[in-house]
Amino acid sequence: MPEFEPDPRAEKLREDHGFDIISREALSLLIDCAVAAAPERILEIGTSVGYSALCLAAATGARVDTIERDADKLAKARELWRECGEDDKITGFCGDALELVPQLVRAHRYDFVFLDAAKSKYGVLVDEIYDFIDTGTKIFADDVNYFGLVKGNALPPHKHRTIVVNMRKFLAKATDPKLFDTQLFDMANGVAICTKI
After folding, report:
1. Cα three-residue angle 154-122-111, rounded to 5 degrees
2. What is the pLDDT of residues 25-65, one digit of tens each?
3. DSSP characters for 95-108?
4. What is the mean pLDDT of the chain?
5. pTM, whole model, 2 decimals?
6. Could you tell me which CATH class the domain 8-196 is placed in?
């Protein structure tokens, strides 16, 4: 299979919104993982400007439901999806993921989940999702090392403490062999690929 190449219009976003977009290294792993999973419907939590949703839809052909709380970012994302001809496969929802995820997982069967939203909420979001996904479904969580502060037990700087403590709790859950078979990667800002047991 040829390597997936993002639409050049999407790649321009990396120049304009680099911090908000998944790294190239993590994107490559995400696309490989999603293509291998052959999903019919993907849930993405954390749209930003629509880059990863576009790549997931283009690479897999799956329907993508994606959640973004910033209306301006979601408007840019919708424009990008239209320009790249993938808007018929992607539905953007504007609002708080903690409110929208319970509704969406009850309404649709998701066979792949991409988690790239508020880092302190990963554990709570996975709790909402877990009972509504099938055994073998993968949850791909980006930025799990959070600037290198998550590893170990050191007390993080105060301004990052809630995120780091909650991310450590998420990783403890993600690596519980009764719940998930999880692979951890140090690339970029850290990736966890959690397969439901």
Report:
1. 140
2. 999 999 999 999 999 999 999 999 999 999 999 999 999 99
3. S-HHHHHHHHHHHS
4. 92
5. 0.93
6. alpha beta
Confidence of residue 1 (pLDDT cuts 50, 70, 90): very low
The residue with tokens 């424009």 is 79
Residues linked to residue 42 through DSSP beta bridges, in sequence order? 64, 112
Which residue in this structure is represented by tokens 């554990």? 123
Residue boundaries of the structural domains of the chain: 8-196
Q: Six-digit token pair at 194?
A: 């959690």
The residues, ordered by sequence, that sit 6+ positions from 178 with a Cβ below 8 Å of its Cβ are 197
What the block records as the tokens of 59 is: 């690479």
CB-CB neighbours of 184 under 10 Å: 16
Residue by residue, DSSP assigns 155-192 as PPPGGGHHHHHHHHHHHHHHT-TTTEEEEEE-STT-EE
pLDDT in tens, 87-133: 999 999 999 999 999 999 999 999 999 999 999 999 999 999 999 99
Rounded distance between C-alpha atoms, residue 128 and residue 98, angstroms: 8
Q: Which two tokens stand for residue 63?
A: 């329907």
Half-sphere exposure of 9 (CA within 13 A, CB side): 13
